[in-house]
UniProtKB/TrEMBL annotation:
This is Putative ABC transporter substrate-binding protein. The lineage of its organism: Bacteria, Bacillati, Actinomycetota, Acidimicrobiia, Acidimicrobiales. It comes from Ilumatobacter coccineus (strain NBRC 103263 / KCTC 29153 / YM16-304). Residues 70-79 have a biased composition (Acidic residues). Keywords: Signal, Transport. GO terms for cellular component: cell envelope. Residues 35-103 are annotated as: Disordered.
Length: 538
C-alpha cells in the first residue's frame, strides 16, 4: 500500500500537531487582533470579565465594514414646480463597488520594478509542514525572478496572530497564514487587503475551488483570504475491532444512530472496552458542535451564520442543540464512549485506541493527522496496531449526508506594505493556488486540495487511488453550499464562544443528570454576552 513519502520520524506526541495548531488561541486573555488595529485599535473582544491590556488604545466607534453600497441621500430637496424643473439636474444612481472602501490590490505594480521583491510569509505550522511549504517556495523562486519568498515560522497560530498585531507595520510580513476562526476579526481590523480585489484584477477564477473552502473566508460579501491548508474532522477506527465484533470494517457509521449501534456491538462483543473516544477540547469537541449544526443546515448564529454581517446572537439552544447533547450524554451514560478530557494535541484519544487494557475502537480528529497517525503506528507506537489496521470514515453526525465544514487556514495579504509588496504577495498566492501546487502540497502533508482539478494530477491522483483513506475528507467537503448555515459561523469572539461550548459539553459528561436544556440556555446566554461585548467594543 503506497503512502506519501516521509523523511522524518514521528513520535506519539506529534500525532496531532496539525490539529493542535488549528486549536491555538491568544493566551494572555486579551485579543491581539483588536489591540493591533492600525487606524484605531479596539478593546478586548474576549469575555467581558477580561480586562483590556493597560496600554491598549481606546476603542474605535467606527462601524464594521459593510458591503460598500451607499444608500440614497435622505435629505432630498423639496419638489419644485414641474414647469420650472430642470431635467438636466436629474441624478443618475451609480453602483459603488463593495471593495471601494478597502485597500486596493494592484498586481500590475510589479511590472515596472527592476529589482527582485522580497516577500516574507508567516506561518504557524509543524516542522514537516514547514518543510513541504519551503519546497513549494523554492520551486516558485526558481520559476521567476520578480519575487523571492522566504518563510518564517512563528511556531503556531497563536504566536502568528499575536506577533502580527503586536508589531508595527514595518515589522509585519507581506503574507500571513491564518486560521478559520479569525475571519470576522481580521476582516474588521482594517489591516488586510481583501483578496477579492486581487482576484478581480487578475481574473482569478475559483470555479474549481471547493465551495466550502472558499466561502469559509468570505465575510460580509467579500472574499478576504484564499484557503490553503484545508482539513476537516474524520472518523478514525480500529478495523480489527470491527472485525472482532462482526462488523464490516469497510462500512463505518455515518449517523448518530449508526454510531451508537456500532459502539454497542463493539462493547457487547468485547472487541473493545469502549465504542468511541471523545473529548471536551475547545477546538475539537466545540468545533464538532458547530459542525453538527452545519450538517443539519441549522444556523449557529444569526446574520446568515455571521457571514452576511455581524452576528448579534447565538441560536444553538434549540432542538438541534438538545439532540446533540442528548446523544453525547446517552453514549457516555451507557458506557459506549470514553472522555479523555481536553485531549491536548489529540494524543490522548489515539493512545486510548492503542490501549492494551481498555481500548476505544473509534475517535474523531482532523484529517490532517492521517499520515502522522499511520506512520506513527507503523513505527511501532500502537501496541501492535499498524497503519493498515486503521480505517478512516466520514464524520458521524445527525444526518446521513456526509458533509463537513473546513478547518485549516488561509492566506491573507496585510495592507500598508505598499502596492508592490501586495502585488508580489498575490503572485505567490496565485502559485500556491495552482492545481499542481495543491496536488503536491496535499500529497506531502495530508491536507485536502482546495480545488477539484488537482485530483487529476499526480502525486495526489495516485495517492487517492492507492489509499482512499486520504480522500475521505475531500469527499465530505466537495458538496456545494446551499445554505449559509453549512459554512462555519463567523464570529469576532469565536474562540471564546467555543470555550463556552466546550465547558457545556464537559458539564454533560461530568453530571449526566444535568438539565440539558438549561445547559444550552446558559451557554447561549454567555455566548450572547461575548458577542455583545465584541460588537460594542469594536
Amino acid at each position: 500500500m503506497q503512502r506519501m513519502n516521509r523523511t522524518f520520524s514521528l513520535r506519539v506526541a506529534a500525532f496531532l500537531t496539525v490539529g493542535a495548531l488549528v486549536a491555538t488561541a491568544c493566551s494572555d486573555g486579551n485579543s491581539a487582533i483588536d489591540a493591533g488595529r492600525d487606524d484605531a485599535p479596539a478593546a478586548e473582544p474576549a469575555p467581558a470579565a477580561s480586562d483590556p491590556a493597560d496600554d491598549a488604545p481606546a476603542a474605535d466607534d467606527t462601524p464594521p465594514a459593510t458591503d460598500g453600497a451607499g444608500e440614497p441621500d435622505s435629505d432630498e430637496p423639496e419638489s419644485g414646480d414641474p414647469a420650472t424643473s430642470d431635467p438636466a439636474e436629474t441624478v443618475t444612481e451609480t453602483t459603488v463597488s463593495p471593495l471601494a472602501e478597502y485597500p486596493a490590490c494592484t498586481p500590475t505594480a510589479l511590472d515596472g520594478v527592476d529589482e527582485t521583491v522580497d516577500v516574507t510569509l508567516w506561518i504557524g505550522l509543524a516542522a514537516p509542514l514547514e518543510e513541504a511549504l519551503d519546497s513549494l517556495a523554492d520551486e516558485f523562486n526558481a520559476s521567476q525572478d520578480q519575487v523571492r519568498v522566504s518563510i518564517e515560522n512563528q511556531t503556531d497560530y497563536e504566536n502568528t496572530i499575536d506577533n502580527y498585531f503586536n508589531l508595527g507595520v514595518g515589522e509585519r510580513p507581506e503574507l500571513l497564514l491564518a486560521p478559520e476562526f479569525v475571519v470576522q476579526a481580521f476582516a474588521e481590523s482594517d489591516t488586510f487587503v481583501p483578496v477579492q480585489a486581487c482576484m478581480e484584477a487578475t481574473d482569478f477564477a475559483t470555479d474549481e475551488f471547493l465551495p466550502r473552502a472558499i466561502e469559509a473566508y468570505s465575510y460580509d460579501g467579500i472574499q478576504w483570504g484564499v484557503p490553503f491548508n484545508v482539513s476537516s474532522p474524520v472518523l478514525f477506527y480500529n478495523k480489527l475491532a470491527f472485525e472482532a465484533a462482526g462488523l464490516d470494517p469497510d462500512s463505518p457509521p455515518l449517523t448518530f444512530d449508526e454510531l451508537e449501534a456500532t459502539s454497542r456491538q463493539i462493547v457487547d462483543s468485547g472487541a473493545a472496552t469502549y465504542g468511541i473516544v471523545v473529548d471536551v477540547g475547545r477546538d475539537s469537541a466545540a468545533g464538532r458542535f458547530e459542525q453538527w449544526f452545519g450538517r443539519s443546515s441549522v444556523p449557529f448564529v444569526d446574520q446568515g451564520n455571521g457571514r452576511d454581517g455581524r452576528a448579534t446572537e447565538a441560536l444553538f439552544a434549540n432542538e438541534t442543540g438538545l439532540a446533540i447533547l442528548t446523544h453525547l450524554r446517552d453514549m457516555n451514560v451507557e458506557g459506549l464512549s470514553f472522555n479523555v478530557g481536553e485531549n491536548a494535541g489529540g494524543v490522548p484519544a489515539f493512545l486510548k485506541i492503542a490501549d492494551p487494557q481498555e481500548a476505544g475502537a473509534m475517535t474523531v480528529s482532523t484529517s490532517a493527522a492521517i499520515s502522522q497517525v499511520l506512520d506513527a503506528l507503523d513505527d511501532g507506537l500502537g501496541n501492535g496496531l499498524t497503519g493498515d489496521d486503521i480505517g478512516v470514515g466520514f464524520l458521524p453526525g445527525p444526518s446521513d449526508q456526509p458533509a463537513a465544514q473546513v478547518g485549516g487556514a488561509a492566506l491573507w495579504i496585510p495592507a500598508d506594505k505598499g502596492d508592490v509588496a501586495s502585488a508580489a504577495a498575490w503572485k505567490f498566492v496565485e502559485f500556491l493556488s495552482l492545481a499542481q501546487s495543491q496536488s503536491t502540497w496535499a500529497a506531502e502533508t495530508g491536507y485536502v486540495p482546495i480545488r477539484t482539478d488537482a485530483l487529476d494530477l499526480d502525486p495526489i491522483k495516485s495517492l487517492y487511488e492507492d489509499d482512499p483513506r486520504f480522500r475521505v475528507s475531500f469527499d465530505q467537503l466537495v458538496a456545494p453550499v446551499t445554505d449559509p448555515s453549512q459554512t462555519r459561523p463567523a464570529l469576532g469572539p469565536q474562540r471564546e464562544v467555543r470555550q463556552v461550548i466546550a465547558d457545556m459539553i464537559a458539564a454533560v459528561y461530568d453530571d449526566p443528570s444535568a438539565d440539558l436544556q438549561q445547559l444550552l440556555d446558559d451557554a447561549e446566554s454567555t455566548s450572547n454576552s461575548l458577542i455583545r461585548n465584541y460588537n460594542e467594543l469594536n
